[in-house]
Amino acid sequence: MKKLALLAAVLGLAACGASQDIVYRPAEQKLPQYIKRIAVRPFANKTQQFGLEEKITLKVIDEFLKNGEYAVSPESSAQGVIVGEIDHYILTPIQYDVNLVPTVYKLNVIASVRLLDREYNRYLWEEPALQVTKIYSAANLPGGMTEEQAREALWEILAKDIVLRTVQGFGSVSSASQKKLPSPQDVLQSTAPANPNP
């Protein structure tokens, strides 16, 4: 009887161990069959940095051409259109030398990107806060880079994320959470005393 109980316990533990190998894989959500050509609308730039929109637009087009799953065409003949805007561009020194000269920087870019279905005039997917970050050493240090070089590295990552999101579907990229400050009206409502006489 003890052997039977021991065998049952061992089999139970083995079953628990086997269940750890199970990986959740959601079904792919590919684009509709009628979408054969993709256009990339020039990105909007909501930051104070000049010229960012041109670089990211060209990089996304280049990534779609490299991928080859969808033809890249002008917007007038495309069934799907990538629509994006650069919302935030934040460069922060994060490390200094003894003379308080910055030696390491963190460059953070947040963009919102959507795919427009021109056939039905609706968005098929939306990533409201795609975020890419690059930490790099100053250009005068070994292995360092300029801000422009760091930017180019970020455009490469962002463009690959956009193409991956389009080609492989839902779950391939996830946006950073959108955080916002409460409006003054929200604050007033949350601090107002309850009305004793309804």
Helix content: 25-40%
What is the domain total for the residues? 1
Radius of gyration: 25 Å
Our count of helices gives 4
Overall average pLDDT: 83
Tally of extended strands?
Answer: 6
Please give a structural write-up.
With 198 residues, the chain is an alpha/beta fold. It has one domain: Lipoprotein like domain (Double Stranded RNA Binding Domain, 2-Layer Sandwich). 32% of the residues lie in helices and 29% in strands. It has helices spanning 2-19, 52-67, 147-168, 184-191; strands spanning 37-40, 44-45, 71-72, 80-96, 102-117, 122-137. Strands 1, 2, 3, 4, 5 and 6 form a 6-stranded mixed beta sheet that branches. The longest helix is centred in the last third of the chain and has 22 residues, at 147-168. The radius of gyration is 25 Å and the shape is flat. The N and C termini lie far apart (69 Å). The relative contact order is 0.14.
What is the topology?
Blueprint lengths: L1 H18 L17 E4 L3 E2 L6 H16 L3 E2 L7 E17 L5 E16 L4 E16 L9 H22 L15 H8 L7
Parallel strand pairs: 1-3, 1-4, 2-4
Antiparallel strand pairs: 4-5, 5-6
Helix pairs in contact: 2-3
